[in-house]
Write a structure and sequence with these properties.
Blueprint lengths: L1 E4 L5 E6 L5 E5 L4 E5 L5 E6 L4 E6 L5 E5 L5 E4 L2 E4 L11 E5 L6 E5 L1 E2 L2 E2 L3 E6 L5 E5 L3 E2 L2 E2 L2 E6 L6 E8 L2 E6 L5 E6 L4 E9 L2 E2 L10 E5 L5 E7 L5 E6 L3 E5 L5 E6 L7 E7 L5 E6 L4 E6 L13
Length: 306
């Protein structure tokens, strides 16, 4: 594992670009930022609020889940998102960023009259639509119920697919796009949903939950963003223990990869580099971006690697 850059303002949502750079968000600073292989960084766009997950869309723009922003706190050496909403918060949103000009367009702030609370992570399907999670907002003793949405990149349509679901965070599609995976932060569980058609999900076997359980962590872990590798493993950033964990579709732990410097807030992972054999990991509490070799290629992403 190699440290690429540190001093970032709570980095998340890494996207490994074909030119070798990594574009990520700095939630604390409200920016979309490009990190060069030598660690140099440049601001691509000022998103405002709290840019979170990001994915490259069919039009070449970067689509950003914006959670609306946080009031930040320090926990020893670690930066943490507080539970008080900033005065500037109005709602969460989905934004599209022109990578050449830095222009930011807000596409969605609500669905059927219900404001988006805290959009978190995003994945595009081959049709050009995208699934995204809304984790909700914490407010001291209260927390919103979460949801999963599907939307079109031109701003013409958004639909709520799953509600309620508690603290949905990372989201990804299997290679055949027949399965949508979602990481549940609070319960530290990986859920799978059958995709019947773009933007249409089936229901799982449990009356109390719309998905089917793939894996449940048993220690003091919580889950953040995820990516898939070419073996179909769900590679999920694991909060609390400072690592990324690979879970097979059958629910077996395949690998546990800690970061170099322990951080309770290891939040995101993506694949890139030659043959997609590099994993890029955000250590958000300490503001670090890492690169590490992976045992197999990552799964290609629509409109980026395919």
């Amino acid at each position: 594992m190699r440290e690429i850059c540190r001093g970032l303002g709570f980095p998340e949502g890494p996207v490994a670009m074909p030119d070798g750079s990594v574009i990520l968000v700095e939630i604390q600073h409200g920016t979309l930022t490009r990190i060069r292989p030598d660690g140099k960084r440049e601001v691509v766009a000022e998103c405002g609020g709290g840019p979170n997950g990001a994915a490259l869309g069919p039009d070449g723009r970067m689509y950003v889940c914006n959670n609306g922003g946080f009031v930040w706190t320090k926990d020893g050496p670690f930066l943490r998102s507080g539970e008080v909403r900033p005065d500037t918060y109005t709602s969460g949103s989905i934004q599209a960023v022109d990578l050449k000009t830095g222009a930011v367009e807000t596409l969605y702030t609500e669905c059927n009259g219900e404001p988006l609370k805290g959009p978190n992570d995003i994945v595009f399907d081959t049709e050009g639509g995208f699934y995204f999670t809304d984790l909700g907002r914490r407010r001291g003793r209260q927390i919103d119920r979460g949801a999963i949405y599907y939307a079109l990149p031109d701003g013409s349509g958004i639909s709520e697919l799953v509600f309620p679901i508690d603290t949905p965070n990372g989201i990804g599609l299997s290679a055949d796009e027949k399965t949508l995976y979602v990481a549940e932060t609070g319960g530290a569980r990986i859920w799978a949903f059958d995709v019947l058609a773009p933007g249409k999900l089936g229901r799982g076997p449990h009356r109390l939950h719309p998905g089917r359980l793939v894996y449940s962590f048993t220690g003091y872990e919580r889950l953040d963003s995820l990516a898939l590798d070419s073996e179909g493993n769900v590679v999920v950033a694991t909060l609390g223990t400072g690592c990324v964990t690979a879970i097979s579709p059958e629910g077996r732990v395949r690998a546990v990869v800690p970061v170099l410097e322990f951080d309770i807030m290891v939040t995101n992972v993506c694949f890139g580099g030659p043959d997609l054999r590099k994993a890029y990991v955000t250590s958000s509490g300490l503001g670090i971006l890492y690169e590490t070799d992976w045992h197999c290629p990552g799964q290609p992403l629509n409109f980026l690697n395919r």
